[in-house]
Amino acid sequence: MASYIPRMNGRTPIHVIGGGLAGCEAAWQIARSGVPVIIHEMRPERSTDAHVTEHLAELVCSNSFRSDDSENNAVGLLHEEMRRAESLILQAADRHRVPAGSALAVDRAGFSEEIEGAIDAEPHIDVERHELPGLPPDEWGSVIIATGPLTSPGLATAIQSLTGEDSLAFFDAISPIVYRDSIDFSKAWYQSRYDKGSAEAGADHVRGDYINCPLDRAQYESLIAALLGADKIEFKEWEAITPYFEGCLPIEVMAERGLETLRYGPMKPVGLTDPHNGERPHAVVQLRQDNALGTIYNIVGFQTKLRYTEQRRIFTSIPGLESTRFARLGGIHRNTFINSPRLLDSELRLKSMPRLRFAGQITGVEGYVESAAVGLLAGRFAAAEAVGQDITPPPNTTALGAMLEHITRGADAGTFQPMNVNFGLFPPLEGRMKKRERRPALARRALTDLNNWLDAPLAAAE
Prior knowledge:
Layout: E1 14-17, H1 21-32, E2 37-41, E3 64-67, H2 74-84, H3 88-95, E4 97-98, E5 103-106, H4 108-121, E6 125-129, E7 143-145, H5 153-163, E8 168-174, E9 177-179, E10 189-190, E11 210-215, H6 217-229, H7 237-240, H8 251-255, E12 283-289, E13 296-299, H9 308-315, E14 326-328, E15 331-337, H10 340-343, E16 349-350, E17 353-358, H11 368-386, E18 389-390, H12 399-410, H13 435-455, E19 459-460
Parallel strand pairs: 1-2, 1-7, 2-6, 7-17
Antiparallel strand pairs: 3-5, 4-5, 8-15, 9-13, 9-14, 10-11, 11-12, 12-13, 16-17, 18-19
């Protein structure tokens, strides 16, 4: 590793550790400010348990960025805020969108290729492929650590030693993906809940963007029994005490919480009618398109730690999936994050070593969009600092600001756990209004305040 300080275009570059969504977004924001940046990505020198390619910004858990409703959903509002901030991640997501009802889901391959192409074409960005075995060297100066949930052991140990914090970790589980042409449509059908699909997507999608596989009571109870009795991955002792993130529980863990849990979760039948008999099923398994060609679909909510043989046995018992072929089976990986409320300042700098910033899931946000959003903020903060300008954090009335406020100051450091963006993080509105009017009002306030923040001139630092 070089011991000198490289200079690009007369400036000392900012270093970004990690080429995932947060790292690429941070680098993009820095480069768009005219400041040089180097991305350090350890793949393919060192692989992970979840990635299958060496591409930048590879999506490993799901192809969905969740709701794109900017008026009624906090993550949809975050999408819109990032678009207005010229986010590379949202630009690529919009260009590689696949049908998913009101959600923003993408073609994984096209999405990653788009981002890698943009990064490669940007003259202010260089990419170096190597593993960082410990903390970045002092001569690097400004650094953003955006290594995500799969931080390499050497760097994770160094961070833990530096911060003095016990490791905080949980597991993310990955849903299986199946080939569409192996689904039996004499039993399955297309429909979004309450018919909120994309009618323009084509004849097969007139009634919705999801494929539905119905289960009657006996089939549902048999599936639950199979999940409870299945052979699962055995964890090491230190892994066994690591908590799951509640928003991404393995299907078999949800089944352990009671017979009806899945019927009120990912297998809820509300808003769906089986066209083969005109009735609402007792439960339903939904599949969502996973690529632009519509050739592969992921089984929604079926993230799992079951062994591969058990996945094939149990999931092919679902009506419509008896002869299905799997493009990818489910899996599980460890996810590590720092205690951000205790360790980071309002510009995502490590209080004990301010030359280091953190971004992405390692800060304790959950979800692709949230991770990229923290990368966007870290990149803007680092770029402003590099050119000697002051930048204030976005107002906490915005989705970006509310999320930043939560992970740096708002959350209780003693009980800090990862969280998706949600309207509960926003300051309440003044005055009284009807419940259905609150979220649109919060969204309008957020976008007004975001525009003011984006338009505010940067002041030269003293």
